[in-house]
Specification:
By secondary structure, the protein is of the alpha/beta class. The chain contains seven helices and five strands. Strand 1, helix 1 and strand 2 form a beta-alpha-beta unit.
Length: 246
């Protein structure tokens, strides 16, 4: 294994998406620290399932893990008015802004210049939105820079699939937030986690009642988190000290 000489903060959305990237980093001279900050995930039970799995995987690999705050209500404020935006639309851009700013602030606090994210390895995400959000976060946070890496390439997608099967990772059925769960109404209830069945049933009832998806609200001037937003001032930007394992 190559000697680790380059520290990097990896914002992790989950263990499956981070696994191949962490393997690549440790094999190519990088010393990753994982920052888990995903207040978009709904409900809290799903958040804990994903976070705990990521934390356990980092513990297994001996990689430092930083546990960020979870405040879904504050996240909802950050995407207010964008609830009916489609996936990959303005709501996702605002969500990336919240999470990347928190990541940059954590990197600054830990003295790690470079940060990156496996969100840039997902075929379901827009790379341009992630890049824009992360580069803006770096500009707002002196001493940090976004490592703009396309984690879809270099065989990492295939390796991700191999590690998912090898590790028996939890099978996530939706992106994260409640606005990404509409397709679950097409699944049998027994295929869903018990803690979302009632919510998905309500989604299905609302869809049947309305007939069509409500029209999207008028676009806001900017999906970027404003300077006075609580996410810029609370502990959500700081996280905790990394849990280190030998």
């Amino acid at each position: 294994m190559t000697e680790a000489i380059h520290p990097v903060l990896l914002h992790s959305c989950c263990a499956p998406c981070s696994s191949a990237i962490l393997e690549w980093l440790t094999q190519n001279g990088y010393a990753p620290t994982v920052f888990y900050f995903n207040p978009n995930i709904f409900p809290a039970q799903e958040y804990l399932t994903r976070k705990n799995e990521c934390q356990q995987y980092c513990r297994k690999l001996g990689i430092p893990f930083v546990d960020g705050d979870y405040d879904h209500a504050l996240w909802r404020e950050a995407v207010k008015g964008l609830e009916h935006e489609p996936e990959r639309g303005l709501r996702c851009r605002a969500c990336f802004g919240v999470r990347m700013l928190a990541t940059a602030k954590c990197a600054q606090r830990l003295g790690i210049e470079s940060f990156t994210t496996p969100l840039a390895g997902s075929r379901w995400k827009r790379l341009d939105q992630i890049r824009e959000a992360a580069e803006e976060a770096a500009r707002l946070t002196p001493g940090t820079r976004y490592w703009d890496m396309n984690w879809r390439k270099g065989g990492l997608q295939q390796r991700r699939g191999e590690l998912l099967a090898q590790e028996g990772f939890y099978n996530q059925l939706w992106c994260g937030c409640e606005f990404s769960m509409g397709h679950l109404t097409m699944r049998a209830p027994e295929d869903l986690p018990s803690y979302v069945r009632d919510f998905v049933k309500q989604l299905g009832s609302a869809k049947n009642k309305e007939g069509t998806q409500p029209a999207s609200p008028s676009p806001v001037q900017s999906p970027i988190v404003p300077p006075n937003h609580p996410f810029r001032k609370t502990g959500a930007l700081e996280g905790e000290k990394p849990e280190r394992r030998s």
